[in-house]
Structure formats: C-alpha cells, structure tokens
Specification:
Layout lengths: L2 H11 L12 H46 L4 H19 L1
Helix pairs in contact: 2-3
Length: about 100
C-alpha cells in the first residue's frame, strides 16, 4: 500500500469539514440542561424526604420520652392526666 493510497483511505473515512459544524449543538445543550434540571429536582426531593424523616424521628423520640416519664408517675389518674398533658404538648410542638 502506497502512502498516497493510505492518505486517500484516511480522508475518505473522515467526515468532510468545511469549517461549519455538520450537526447543530442546541439539541445536546437542551438535553444537558434537562438532565441537570432533573438531577437538581431529584436532589431537592431527597433532601426534603431526609428532613421529614428526621422530624418524624424527633417526634417519635419525644413521644416515647413523655410516655416513659408518665409511666413512672404514681397513681392511675395521675398517669392518665400526665399522658393527656404530654400528648397535647407533643402534638402542639409538632405543629
């Protein structure tokens, strides 16, 4: 194979470049912007779910602590009154 023939084969395999782009760039830019927007939305949703889970965990811990303290109070009526007061306090704090 001669050098001229090799050069001709290489030039045939490569696309012709006349200084202009053969394909427009805007579809790729639009796809990239869409992908970045979707990733941002996913990140915000995940962050919101994590915050909700933390709030739910804190609420459950507060209820458990209040119930444990009320169960140590002597007397059935006093325990029930403590539970009612603790439930109202925990519910009011969650809002």
């Amino acid at each position: 194979m001669t050098a001229a023939r090799l050069r001709r084969l290489v030039l045939q395999a490569l696309p012709a470049r006349d200084g202009a782009r053969s394909r427009p760039v805007w579809p790729w830019a639009l796809a990239t912007a869409t992908l970045l927007g979707l990733l941002l939305a996913l990140g915000l949703v995940v962050q919101d779910v994590v915050h909700q889970a933390a709030a739910r965990h804190a609420d459950a811990a507060a209820r458990s602590t209040a119930l444990w303290r009320c169960n140590t109070v002597a007397g059935r009526d006093a325990r029930q009154a403590c539970r009612n007061a603790a439930g109202a306090a925990v519910a009011g704090r969650a809002r």
